[in-house]
Request: fold
Amino acid sequence: MLLVDLGAVWEARMRCPLPLAGIAIRRDLAPRWARAVNDALYASVTFAIAHPDASDSYVTTHAQAMDADVVARHIGLYVNDYSLALDESAVRAFLAWGEAEGVFPGVREDLPIFA
Reply:
């Protein structure tokens, strides 16, 4: 039974999509590596969209008792056009929320955030 859709709550309160996952880079490495890591992740998702069966065996190997349909739905949560279209404002909103709630350290505006 669904009690609340946290994605819908987030979008209603924050007026932007909820980033479902994130890759963090140490602040001292971010200026050098952030763009390259972002580009590699974008290329990975683009490849996965073009080749939907390519990651099935990897996900199945690391999944806990998932049948093929569940694996496909799980992959579809992250391998989609929405993942490619997420913009920096959603990531910054998430970080600002985390800082305000004491979950994340202060967000430095001078560091790059790519989405």
Notes: The chain has a mean pLDDT of 81.
